[in-house]
Write a structure and sequence with these properties.
Structural class: mainly beta
Radius of gyration: 29 Å
Number of strands: 29
Mean pLDDT: 77
Low-confidence stretches: 1-36, 121-126
Shape: flat
Largest sheet: 8 strands, mixed
């Protein structure tokens, strides 16, 4: 029996040589896959696969489990078992544990997929998905998808620059349980700045009659950002579109704007070759920009800026436009006259919020310092008052306090 066990292990190892860790780790071909149903208890008894690890997956559709040995016969190898929500086995794969631990499985349409990642050289333990494979649920194996079609991406850059440009390697970023986006970039040096032109789009998985899967993406816009060594490598997104009014395009630049933080924005009005700065905005206070728009109230144009903190609280501000004189006025808020007890500590004031009906609201959370630390919320509405020209005020109405226990 012991000789039979070693023979079986020899076959597995012979079919699956360890990956060269100096090279990018890629999964083995279909010939290396174990087929048939997996009897976990039998594997554990016969092969001492006593370690079990849950792998990353879209848990609403799949479950991925790694079974691997602690003994010396196969010290770097294990078995990946992927099942669907009905516990049917979709895939069994024998390979390098280090490679398997960087997989992610998900369902797209009626098909199941698995990605293999490599570690980013810039950030330890941060991974970039570089391979996409479709799972053959009949053979319980997988096959590589066809390479990403870049014709739409290249055409977009060609239309912008009227010539082909050397694109940086295309990267994939996971943006949902079963969604990935691609980004293609072109860098151009200009004096003290480096300009980055980037296009991004949702990655599409296209099925064909022969059961092969092709990857495609169709970006429709190129964004521009600017990196300056003179400003500690600050990144500035240039000429982001807000709207159009009286023949002027309203644009803004955003400095150091990322998904969790924004530093500042500058708003411009542009007509033909004329471009005039209207105002700068610095009131993020640790928030990130999540919206800037052209809005009309009382038949007058306003720019509305809204930002949110990663903790959930938000801030909104309103600016009244006067494009005839190319000026803006900040819309100030009149203080409410609701009497607030001295024991109440106000925080996280939301500024101006605009609900789905176009009404102005505001709020703030509070903590009652004499009430055992219990908190609540201050809320109310704003009434927009026209003073003159493009000078407006927001008057608070219906202001009230409510506790969390209400």
């Amino acid at each position: 029996m012991k000789n039979l066990l070693y023979c079986f292990l020899f076959v597995l190892i012979g079919c699956n040589p360890p990956l060269n860790e100096d090279k990018e780790e890629t999964p083995q071909k279909a010939a290396t896959l174990i087929t048939g149903n997996i009897n976990v208890q039998r594997l554990q008894e016969n092969f001492s696969l006593y370690k079990k690890l849950q792998m990353a997956s879209d848990t609403s559709t799949t479950k991925s489990t790694l079974y691997y040995k602690g003994r010396k016969e196969i010290p770097k190898h294990g078995i990946l078992v992927v099942t669907n929500k009905n516990k049917d086995t979709l895939l069994t794969y024998f390979g390098d544990v280090k490679t398997i631990r960087r997989t992610y499985t998900f369902k797209k349409g009626n098909r199941y997929f698995i990605q293999f990642a490599r570690e980013s050289g810039n950030y330890p333990h941060q991974f970039k998905y570089t391979r996409f494979y479709a799972i053959d649920t009949i053979k319980r194996s997988f096959y590589e998808t066809k390479a990403l079609r870049t014709d739409a991406i290249e055409s977009l850059f060609f239309l912008r620059f009227k010539d082909s440009v050397p694109l940086q390697p295309i990267e994939y970023q996971q943006t949902g349980p079963n969604d990935f986006t691609i980004s293609a970039a072109y860098f151009k040096d200009s004096l003290d700045f480096k300009i980055k032109y980037e296009a991004s789009a949702l990655l599409e998985f296209e099925g064909h009659d022969n059961d092969s899967i092709a990857l495609s993406a169709n970006p429709t816009e190129i964004t521009t950002s600017l990196t300056s060594d003179a400003y500690s490598s600050s990144t500035i997104q240039l000429d982001k579109y807000i709207g159009e009014i009286d023949g002027y395009d309203l644009l803004y630049n955003c400095k150091n704007c990322i998904s969790s933080y924004s530093e500042s924005i500058s708003v411009f009005a542009k007509k033909d070759t004329i471009k005039i700065k209207l105002f700068d905005y610095y009131k993020f206070g640790g928030n990130y920009l999540d919206g800037i728009s052209l809005r009309y109230f009382n038949n007058h144009p306003f720019i509305y800026i809204h930002s949110t903190h990663t903790y959930g609280h938000s801030l909104g501000d309103l600016y009244a436009l006067d494009l005839e004189n190319l000026k803006v006025n900040y819309v100030n808020k009149i203080e409410h006259n609701l009497k607030i007890p001295d024991s109440i500590y106000m925080r996280n004031f939301s500024g101006v919020e605009i609900d789905s009906s176009g009404d102005f609201t505001f709020g703030a959370s509070y903590r009652n310092l004499s009430g055992g630390g219990k908190g609540g919320y201050l809320s109310g509405n704003y009434h927009l008052i026209h003073v003159k020209g493009n000078i407006y005020l927001l008057e608070p109405i219906n202001v009230k306090l409510s506790s969390n226990s209400e």
